[in-house]
Structure formats: C-alpha cells, structure tokens
Amino acid sequence: MKYSLVELAPVTPGGNKHEALDRALAAAEEAEHLGFYRFWFAEHHHVTGYAAQDPAPLIAAAAQRTSRIRLGSGAVLLNHYSAFSVAERFLMLESLAPGRIDLGLGRSTATPLIDHALRRDRNSQQADDYLDQVQEIIGYLHKAFDRAHPFAAIDLTAGIDSIPEVWVLGSSGASAGLAARLGIGYTFGGHINPDLTSRALRYYRDGFTKTPFGTGTPQAMLALNIVAADDEEQAHQLTWPARALRAGGRDRPIPTLEQARAELSTSAKAQPSTIVDGVIPPQISGTPATLRPQLEPVIRESGATEVMVQDMLTDSAARTRSRQIIAQALHAITT
C-alpha cells in the first residue's frame, strides 16, 4: 500500500511562518526516512494558520534535501494561473529532480477579496475553464495538441528528459470523470467529504480510459486526516486542534492542544474520531493496534491504491510519532 503526506506548514501560536516552513521542509526529510511515497505541499492564500502559500518553491527546496521521495502540489489552484505558467514551472521542477515531481491540480476559492486580488484580468467576468486548463497542461507536457491548435508549435519540454506526473484533486466527485477520461491519477478529499468517498473513487475507476498521459491503470488516491499515538485517549485528543480551528475560525494560528481543550465544548471533544461501520469521521485517530483495522476495510471498499495523509500537528514529537504509527499501519495493508 502506498502512503503519502500533504503538508500545510501549520503556524503555531506565538510562532511565525519562517519557523513553520523550516518544520515543513524537515518533515519532507522525515517522511522520506519513514517510507512515505510522496510529499505534497498545499496552496492556501492569505491564511494566518498555514505557511504553504505556493507549492513550487517548497518543492524546489525539499528536492535539495531529499533523494527518493516524490514531491508535488496538493494542489496548484488552476483558477489563479495560466496553464502555460503552471506547465513551465513544473517542468523546471522536474529538471531539478528528474522523475520525482507530481503536479496535483485543483481549484478553490478564498474570500471574494483575495480571489479578486489574485486575478490578473479584473475587468472581465471570470469563467470556469478548469477542464480546458487541465487539458491544456496535458497538451504542453505530452506535446498532445492537435496540429491545428494555436499552441501546437510550443515545446516546453525541449531539453527535459522526463515530465511531472499529473493528478486531478477533488472533493465533490465532479472531477473524477475528468481524471478518468484523461487516464491520469485522481485524488479524492475523503477528509472533506467522507460520505462520497467510495462513490467518487468507483466512478473514477469505472470510467478510466488508458491514455499516454498516465500510468495506464487507475491511480485512486484517498486523502484522509489521520493522527495517531500510543494510546487511544492521547490519539483522540490530537484531533482537537483541528476541531477547534474549524469551530473558532480559520484566520488564526493552529490551536495548541491546551487551547483546543479550553475552547471546545464537551460534546465537540467527544465527537467520534474512529471509523465505525465504514463511516469516516472528519478526523481519524488510532494507535499501533487499532489504526490498521480501521483503515483496511475503507481502503478495500473504496478501491484506493494510495492514501494521502493530512494532519495539523504542530508539536514535533507528537507529529513524528503519529507519522511513524501511520506509516507502519499503512505499510502493513496489501491491496
């Protein structure tokens, strides 16, 4: 079973983004040591609690500190960029770390003000051209434009011997069909919309078409928020900072465990964090003894070929131990 990590570079109370980015890059090295297959950086604009605003420079920095692990974006938000600029930047990253770069593509909004600030053309009405953007990127990377296409003469791959692996990310299931038609990897945000997990990944697998743009077989990645510790109570409590962030507003540093304990109501603290009868909670917790039995049925039911783990842990020791336990549990699952 492949297992990977997506890093948000969480900022601690009283800390700053410089420290958060240092921890994020150290986490990439640690992930390689623990056997994780990929390490992706998120893109969150104008957010106090996360330092990962732009995946590309973080990928470049992590490439210099690692040698094996794949590095990528989880995800580049295409509604803020041209397809040309994204393809060119990630081909440059591929030149820095040949055979190790993933280009995860998604779309998202911030606040109306930040969305407007991110736009280059502010005079025309913004259109939803995500499908066209993804196809254009495939065209650049694989030189796959029709001969009559105005961009057919552009060759961004000149002098580059390999290309990034392209993934489509989504949380509603709507982009599953796009990834399937293009024959590329699909990542579903099970931590965002857990009830749709099996349906979305099944739709992707059933519609998958083999193309030159992917590996030739469905690559179905399931993203989950997972934390772990050596006892159940401690593991469950590690979900509290993420709950407190959702409850108290996102425009602040990630709450500490002590802050979350003080902020959350008794009922909020008691909300389930284990998978029961296939029901996936927003935050999953477990121990060396309980994590694999929780995850294995969900992985088999969904048909996931890989799990992408997210957490919001800022305590270095707790994060390291959590990721050790998660790696051991997922490594033991065969698909």
From TrEMBL:
It comes from Phytohabitans kaempferiae. To bacterial alkanal monooxygenase alpha and beta chains. This is MsnO8 family LLM class oxidoreductase. Gene3D superfamilies: Luciferase-like domain. Keywords: Oxidoreductase. InterPro entries: Bact_Lucif_Oxidored (IPR050766), CmoO-like (IPR019949), Luciferase-like_dom (IPR011251), Luciferase-like_sf (IPR036661). The keyword Oxidoreductase applies. It holds the Pfam family Bac_luciferase. Residues 8-305 form the Luciferase-like domain. One of its GO terms (molecular function) is oxidoreductase activity. Its EC number is 1.-.-.-.
